[in-house]
Amino acid sequence: MSDARSASSLFSLGDPPILLEARNINKYYTNGKQGLHVLKDVSLKIDIGEIISVLGPSGAGKSTLLHILGGLDTPTSGEVLFEGKAFKNLSESELSSVRNEAVGFVFQFYHLMPEFTILENVMMPALIGLRPPASGLRPEEKALELLKEVGLSHRTRHFPGQLSGGEQQRVAIARALMNMPKLLLCDEPTGNLDSENGKQICQLLKKLNQERKMTIVLVTHNLEVAGFGFKVYNMADGSIRPERGGAD
Length: 248
Fold this sequence. Notes:
Strand order of the largest sheet: 6-7-8-3-9-10
Strand content: 25-35%
Helix content: 25-40%
Order of helices and strands: HEEEHEEHEHHHEHEHEE
CATH topology: Rossmann fold
Number of domains: 1
CATH class: Alpha Beta
Number of helices: 8
Number of strands: 10
Distance between the termini: 17 Å
CATH superfamily: P-loop containing nucleotide triphosphate hydrolases
């Protein structure tokens, strides 16, 4: 794809550096005497500046994998490395910093706080981190900039319940960008939207990748949405395999 070649051209010498790597990830859950093997020796490498799609049906293990890649959950065995550093070797405060500052999360159901305005929702990651955004702007200034970028500068004083589903997802994306993360993890970001709004969200993610060179991992059950990835992996029964462009 032309987008993939464009991203690759950023790195004139050798291959682009690896931002995130999963090595032989296994995840087991137990319920009494029964065990569930959710992830089975999952390995993948994610280069800086690319979009990775993980395609699979409900129950395939996609969300569990995404949570492990973002440090929200831990594997039963195997390891995740972010910029060459294994999550398992980080202290809880160090891992918390990675989650809050280096990784942005976008979920299917938005998870906006209904009692706060759109502007306040977007500002929240910077307020939780108790430090100004990496851009040097005040949290409110950065939030206004991001809302303009996602086309919602006219909605800053509205509350989530006053917005459409597509608009709420744009707010969620803006919030995820508040601390200027290096990696954006998207869990079925179009799953709660109609086809037109879903397409607009995918176009927005593509724009962020092109303009910010942001690395994006997108998990979805939708084949059309998965097509936005430079590499597409198929996931079924806890196992993963490259569908297109994913061979290391």
